[in-house]
């Protein structure tokens, strides 16, 4: 099938990495932002409950 005669070139690796990061942020960015927003709100509510009860 495919034969690998030499290592991957540096520009190819950098380009693939940039594409991976950009597409990853596009796919997973909004759900992760929503998750962290809910998590921070939950932690803030727990701190308020601890401060008011203690």
Radius of gyration: 22 Å
Which blocks of ≥5 consecutive residues have pLDDT under 50? none
- Kindly state the percentage of residues in helix: over 70%
Mean pLDDT reading = 88
Q: Output the structural class.
A: mainly alpha
Task: Name the overall outline.
Answer: rod-shaped
Beta content: under 5%
Distance between the termini: 69 Å
| Continuous helix count | 1
Largest beta-sheet characterization: none
Q: Please provide the count of β strands.
A: 0
The helix/strand order is H
Keywords: Membrane, Transmembrane
Pfam families: PIGBOS1 (PF23670)
Organism: Perilla frutescens var. hirtella
Protein name: Transmembrane protein
Description:
The protein has 54 residues and is mainly α. Helix content is 81%, strand content 0%. The protein is built from one helix and no strands. The protein has one helix spanning 10-53. The radius of gyration is 22 Å and the shape is rod-shaped. The protein starts with 9 loop residues before the first helix and ends with a helix. The mean pLDDT is 88. This is Transmembrane protein. Keywords: Membrane, Transmembrane. InterPro entries: PIGBOS1.
């Amino acid at each position: 099938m495919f034969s690998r005669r030499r290592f991957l070139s540096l520009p190819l690796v950098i380009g693939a990495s940039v594409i991976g990061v950009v597409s990853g942020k596009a796919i997973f960015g909004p759900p992760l932002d929503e998750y962290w927003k809910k998590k921070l709100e939950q932690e803030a509510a727990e701190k308020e409950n601890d401060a008011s009860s203690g």
